[in-house]
Amino acid sequence: MVLSKTKTLTKKPATKKVAIKKPATKKVAIKKPATKKVTTSQRTKVICISHKEDCDGISSAALVRQAFGGDSILVDYPGQMEALNQVVSDEKLKSLFICDLGLSKKTQDEFIDIMSRLRKNKVSVTYIDHHDIDPTVVTSLEKLKVKVIHDINECTTVQVYNAYKSKLNDHASFVATCAAITDYMEDRPLGSKLLQIYDRQFALISATVMTYNIVGHQREPDYLQYLVEELADSKFPHDIPNTFEFAQIQVEKLSQIIAKVKVGMKTMSNLGHMEILDSGASGAVNFVMGLSGKDVGVAYKERIDHGIYAVSVRGSKNCKVHLGRIVNLLATSLGGSGGGHDKACGAVVPKQKIKKFITELNKQIK
Ligand SMILES: [Mn+2]
């Protein structure tokens, strides 16, 4: 199926950088005539703030870009508020999309506050997500006339696809399929329909290679931007140079992590846990859960300059509690933050509280 030939001409070279926002010093510009106000109030910019750590976030940004144009700002959960505080004062901002970035007890009030400032400036705001959300937050957002697209049963990209299908090309359904696979949501009503369009094995390898490239390039924002542009431009992962080679390197690293987890993992009555020293916690956590034989796995890595641990938590199919909710409350009570899905979530925990976090979690998941 040749889907994307017409787009080839518009493809920009990989070097194109999406405007990274300069500090907001510009506005104070002194020498402008007093009449300037009328022209600066012209709002034209479209921005999508999306999650940079996985295929769902990157793909959401890609589909928003295909449907509406504009620039993407890619962030992790802790970086979300900083990005929002930056765009809120952008006088050119017309339309803002926020994708795949869940809120927690710690962030939700500030989030609503920023939304109300944006709405006072008549910025159109669309929040698209599938993480567990406090219902009072949805009520507040709707009161502010923020458009909320939220379904905990479909990944964000599938929801973006579903909402803006008429502005997207055929290939967008493949981008959404890969995102659903990565988020373990290809068995949901919309996700499964999309997967049926494509050969399962083809979709699985594409999603997996994409994921390894995203995870392995977290410290290269330009590369992540490039991926957004290529996906928006209807490229298959195998058509993006070197993605499969890069995936092989990641797979080799993962096999080394397996060996280390086998040696270093510890267990409590209800969970397996391990401190990770030389890789990401989220790359190791599934092995910690699987190899421990427990229904919950915890992997944590110290962020030395921040005095905190970045914690990843996973639950097996047998895990009956909602880990995201438990971790949200527990991490907040220990002076950190966290949250996420029922079987996959994360937290930031102050360094000296990590033991307490694990023993408390072990108690609460019986
Ligand atoms: Mn997601």
Task: Indicate how many domains the architecture comprises.
Answer: 2
The main sheet comes to: 6 strands, mixed
Secondary-structure-derived class: alpha/beta
What is the count of β-strands?
11
Number of helices: 14
| Mean pLDDT over the full residue set | 90
Q: Percent of residues in helical segments?
A: 40-55%
CATH architecture of the largest domain: 3-Layer(aba) Sandwich
**Ligand set:** manganese (II) ion
Q: Which band does the percent of strand residues land in? A: 15-25%
Sheet with the most strands: spatial strand order: 6-7-8-9-11-10
The value of Rg in angstroms is 21 Å
Tell me the distance between the termini.
Answer: 50 Å
CATH topology of the largest domain: Rossmann fold
Instruction: Report the principal-axis shape.
Output: globular
Order of helices and strands: HEHEHEHEHEHHHHHHEEHEEHEEH
Q: In CATH, what is the class of the largest domain?
A: Alpha Beta
Low-confidence stretches: 1-13
